[in-house]
Structures are given as structure tokens and as C-alpha cells.
Amino acid sequence: MVLVGVAAQRNGEPLLLRWHPLHVWHAFVAICHTVLGTLWDPIAHRTVRHLGARLRHGHLFRLHVVNNVQYDTVTGLCLDLYLARRKHHHRHHHRHARHTHANDSADALEPTQRDRPRPVIVFLYGGAWNSGSKELYAALGHHFGHHGFVCVIPDYRIYPRGTVDEMVHDIAKALAWVKENIPDHGGDPDQIHLIGHSAGSHLLLLTLLMAAFTEAGVHSHPGLSPTNLVLHSGFTTDSESSRSAMRRASDRVAPTLPPPLPVTIPPIASCVLLAGVYDTVQHLDYERRRSVHELSGMQRANKETKENMLLRSPTALLSAAITAGVADPSASANLLAQIAHTLPKHVLVAHGTNDTTVPVAQSMTVADLLRAVKCDVHAHFRTDMAHTVPVADLMHASPFFNLVCEFVNDAGQAKGGSGETSAPVDKVVVKPKRRAGQRANGRAATRVVVESSDPSS
């Protein structure tokens, strides 16, 4: 039998696909779509433009970034810091940068602004749990910094170096580092906002839920055992025979929750979830229909079995926490209280309704469950938003970037406390402009024109 090798890995070894014409054809199409799609990928385009701007105005970028700051001495993982700065209103400032090199502090915050802490953005990238790097998102970090945020982009262990359990621990340690050290870089430790994309959204929400589970003592509570959580997640039938079968299967595969977090994560002011996967079992079925499940690291990173994947799916964990009160009311009430305390009050969920990489149903379901645990959820679903568009839109002045900035500002003000003393971030000015010769839905098409001195815009 002919075997076809693919780039995915299992336990560090290459995987082999058994020869099946339809299966191999689908995998081949998926690979070609990924490779060729890079030519039109908006993130790639923005990254190339950003690199060009860095070549022309390198010193302006270097002034406002701190690369490779180690946040975990055990794993050696690092993060990049993009410092807040006040943008110039002189639209041609960057053309004369060579004349202002001796006075580069003009590009930094003014004294009245410099003394005020800035809101902090922590961005978690995606990549199917087996790819990705903080360096790919420098344009995003610089753009947030240009508009008054301190932006932090950490690396985390991707598969096969780490499973989802290790990824969650890495993210928790990065957040603890931010809480402890961000004041040294002009950030407000009481105004930490999280943004995740795709697998990064999954890890973001799972990290927050594991923080709540750790505080609630779920790992040592018999009434909230992994088997019971799976049974109450709503992803199995209610028949006694099915429950018994699930118990026998669970006993055989020994399902486990991700271990308790090694650190305490700081309070989060808000989070933005972009095109995320929140039910890994459902998404595995979708990947199989597309014949990309062997290329994706999701199943292997999430501990292989259905039960373990459910225990690493935010939708299943939220559903289990809500319905577990039937079996153990006191334990469920304590867990729900911890979830409400840990999750930010303000959540923005954004997804494209025509996203072919991750179906929009994932975000619709998690939005409903977050509302059920008393989060104030803002849903933003657009037909023209492909899977990578939300991230690309955060790399330049766009209506979506403006929406995210306004959401974060509103969440920071609603949180109160030190948020009242945080310096406000710059508002993006967006002007619609007609593009001659093009029409959309019977009307003249528009393009976004932004007044900005950001060299990378």
C-alpha cells in the first residue's frame, strides 16, 4: 500500500497518510490552498509593508520595541514589548526623520502623558497549535504602540514541543510577568486587555477558565471529576446506557483536566476573541471533512481522545459548569462564582460568517455561553471577514481597529479603579472615500483612508 508523508507530526515523528485517492486529493488541495493563499493573505501583505517601513525608518521602530524579554527561566520563553508613544500630527514627520534623530524623544509621550500608565494589550497568535511566532506580528505590536497602548506579544510552546496544557501554563506565566513588570515599561497593571486569534483565542479563554477551576479547587473535588464534567458538558446523550458507556470509556482512557495553573493570573479588564475554536471535538469533525486533520496539530495537542478534547474545549467546560449543579449544587455554585470573578466582564467576539477555516458557529456558541455566565458580550460578525482578516485589520488603521480600540477604552473606563488615571489612547480617524469605477451592492465601493503618521501604515 502506498503511503504519503505529510508535514504534521505525532510525538515528534512525521505522520504518514494511507493512500486513499479522495483523502489525498483533499489534503493536496488544502496544502496548495495554504501555500498559494499566502500570496493573497492580508497578514502577509501587512507584514511585508511593515518590513519595508522598518528598512526605511529603522531607528523609529527600534526606539519603541524591546525584543526577546525572557518571562520564564525554565523554558526560556520570551516576549516582545511594543511601547506606547504619542503619534505626531505632522503628516510628513517620517520623511524628515533623519533631521530629528537627535531629538527622538519628540516621538515618545509628552511629559504629562509619560507619567500616566498606558492600557496594556496582550496578543496571543494562532497557528493550528503547531505553528506561529511573535516576530510575525511586529506590525500589530507597533500599530497598537503607535496609538497609545503598551502591546505585549509572548511566544508559547507549540506542538510538538508542548501540548495545550503546557501552552496554557506558558500563557499564565506571561500574564503574571506582565502584572509584575509592565509598570517599568509604562503600562498599567490594572488595565490588561487580552486579544487572541484562532488557536490563540482558544488558549486565551482556556487559560482564564483554568484559573477559575484552580481557584475553585475543581481538580481535587470528587463531584467535579473529569468524568462528571464530561457527562455534564451537554456533549453526550442523556440516556443511562450512553452515560454508562461514557463512564466506561472515561475509565479506560483516564480523561484528565489540564493541571492547575502554577501562578496566579492578574485581573483582566477585557478580552477580544477573534475567529476562535472553542469546541475542539466539533472542529475535529470539520477538519476531517476538509481532510486537514493530519496537517493540523489540534487533536494531538489536545490529548487525542474525545474526552480529553472536551476537557480542553471552553464551550464544554462552560456548559459543564452551568449544568453540574444538578449533581453537586454547592460545588457548581462555587465554580460559577469563580468563573464570573475570573472572566472579564467585557468580551468582544468577532468572526467572519464566511470563514472557511473555522466556522462562525464556534463563536456564536461561545458568545451565548459567556452571556450565560454574566459576561457583557459584544458580537461582531461580518460577511467580508475571512479567517486572517481580523488580525490584518489590527496591523493598520481600519474601522475594525477603531472598533477594538473603542471597546478596550470603554471596558477600561467601566472597570474604574486605576483605569481612571490611565492615559487615553489615540483615536483612529477613518474617512470613507469613493473609489472610481467600482461598485458594490449597487453603490459606489469605499476604501478606508486614515490620517496617521505611523510609518508602517
UniProtKB/TrEMBL annotation:
InterPro entries linked = AB_hydrolase_fold, BD-FAE-like_dom, GDXG_lipolytic_enzyme
> What region holds the BD-FAE-like domain?
109-209
Arranged from A to Z, the UniProt key words for this protein are: Hydrolase
Q: Which GO terms describe its molecular function?
A: arylformamidase activity
Q: Which Pfam families match?
A: BD-FAE
Q: Region Disordered: which residues?
A: 92-112, 414-457
Q: Where is the composition biased (Low complexity)?
A: 438-447
Is Hydrolase among the key words of this record?
A: yes
Query: Per its record, how is this protein called by name?
Result: BD-FAE-like domain-containing protein
UniProt organism field: Allomyces macrogynus (strain ATCC 38327)
